[in-house]
Amino acid sequence: MDKTDMTEKRVFSLIGEKWMLxxxxxxxxKTNAMTASWGGLGVLWGKKVAFxxxxxxxYTKKFVDDADVFSLSFFDDSYKKMLGYxxxxxxxxxDKLAKSGLTVxxxxxxxxxxxxxxTLVCRKMYRQTLDEKCFVDExxxxxxxxxxxxxxxxxxxxxxxxxx
Length: 164
Ligand SMILES: Cc1cc2nc3c(=O)[nH]c(=O)nc-3n(C[C@H](O)[C@H](O)[C@H](O)COP(=O)(O)O)c2cc1C
What we know:
- This protein is an alpha+beta fold.
- The chain has helices spanning 3-17, 59-66, 80-86, 96-100, 139-144; strands at residues 20-25, 31-36, 39-44, 47-54, 69-74, 104-107, 110-113, 118-129, 152-163.
């Protein structure tokens, strides 16, 4: 396997298989987080960027929309159960962060978790709701959006990478 292969495989497995937490703090200082496995890392507008896809009904979306920054957090396998919980229950119904046992602090306005093995602090640059008219492969409309609850895509500059 050459180096490029390895890097690509890492990103695919990091997001698609290991999953991540998307977290943000609103203007009142309240934080919420949810599990995500759709998104990516790349380069756009001359910057290192992350992009994530958030459905309209997610409570976390209000927080991401309210804030200028959000974080993406990656964990080792021992936190998989926590990620399953954060991806099943809504912060509307339970104090997920308290129940998760995670330790939160703020870095530049973004919530960061002490337990994460990698954290990306992200500054929002672009948001757009996916448009039904723009699907080139229309099979994804019926497959993923029977309720027409199209994701918003967010593209954000990665301003800090915290390993740890
Ligand atoms: C493995 C996994 C991956 C997920 N990926 C996404 C995603 O990329 N985008 C999204 O909108 N929801 C995703 N979800 C669903 C949310 O995490 C879930 O609805 C969560 O309960 C929302 O919490 P909230 O209402 O507190 O924001 C995923 C759930 C799981 C379990």
